[in-house]
Design goal:
Order of helices and strands: HHEEHEEEEEE
CATH class: Alpha Beta
Shape: globular
Radius of gyration: 16 Å
Strand content: 35-45%
Largest sheet: 6 strands, mixed
């Protein structure tokens, strides 16, 4: 296995672990995948989160919004790896159960940048976004890949 293939497998393993933590709504496990100096742009909330503590508080608030099961399905991942940095982008089918027990979900675009640190690949930058219709100014929740 080439170095790049091995690195991609390691990042994929981290990604799978992150998804499992998200599905379990385990904020401590979710945040363990991030570097202390992470910078994140989420689809909701402030324009920017700086540092693990700020992002942890945001993740906690997000997990509390949906009482029931969560949905995090990664589609069409693409990796770019060089040295101790790896970039990954994909489409995410993301959602949660509302107060009526119905799944509310939409598609998002995600970019994550990983840095190898202490033998682990940690997320140093993350960007979630949702497309919008410029004419109406509304988020396009109904788009499909």
């Amino acid at each position: 296995m080439s170095d790049t293939a091995a690195q991609q497998a390691q990042i994929q393993q981290q990604l799978d672990s992150w998804v499992q933590a998200c599905l379990a709504k385990d904020v401590a496990r979710i945040i363990s995948h991030y570097a202390e100096d992470v910078v994140a742009y989420d689809a909701i909330g402030p324009l920017r989160f700086q540092g693990r503590a700020a992002y942890q508080a945001h993740w906690q608030a997000c997990m509390e919004m949906c009482g029931g099961p969560a949905q995090f399905e990664i589609h069409q991942p693409s990796f770019l790896i060089g040295g101790d940095l790896g970039t990954l982008h994909y489409l995410l089918h993301c959602g949660g159960t509302d107060d009526k027990g119905q799944m509310q979900s939409s598609w998002m675009r995600v970019t994550q940048c990983f840095r190898q640190q202490g033998g682990r690949w940690l997320i140093v930058h993350e960007h979630f976004s949702m497309p919008c219709d410029m004419a109406s100014g509304k988020t396009s929740f109904d788009l499909q890949p």
